Amino acid sequence: MNDSVFRMFELAQQGFSCAQVLMLMGLEAQGQTNPELVRAMNGLAGGLGFSGKTCGALVGGVCLLGLYAGRGKPGEKEHDRFESMVNELVEWFGEHMQGNFECAQILGDDLEHKQVSVKCGNIVAATYDKIQEILEANGIDPAGGRE
């Protein structure tokens, strides 16, 4: 088990959702903390507030790409390849999950019990790895910040 997977497991054991784990991993890679942002990511848990809709690993992954390549203040522009990075992640996720984008489809009964599932851990780890690959392919250092 590599260090990032072990860290993800620790965060999940602390009760953080898939989307929160991804954002925490990105913030930690940059040497940052942002409890407000992590708190906001909680709304993505369980497929948008435990509604079973779009998987938190996917929407959290898109948010993580935004942390690195999105627009965050007046006068700042998003990375010129931001939309293509998002599209690449969404396309990969669809292929990886055999067309299932909804948390309810992916987790079934585990969603109802709000359980941290091994399936979730595997999805989050694979999504995190794909995000790292996308960032590096677009010249973005995952350890670096936006500035």
Automatic annotation (TrEMBL):
A Pfam short name: C_GCAxxG_C_C
Domain of life of the source: Bacteria
InterPro entries associated with the record: CGCAxxGCC_motif (IPR010181), Multihaem_cyt_sf (IPR036280)
Family matches, as NCBIfam families: C_GCAxxG_C_C, DVU1555_fam_CGA
Protein name: C_GCAxxG_C_C family probable redox protein
Species in which this protein is naturally found: Desulfotruncus arcticus DSM 17038
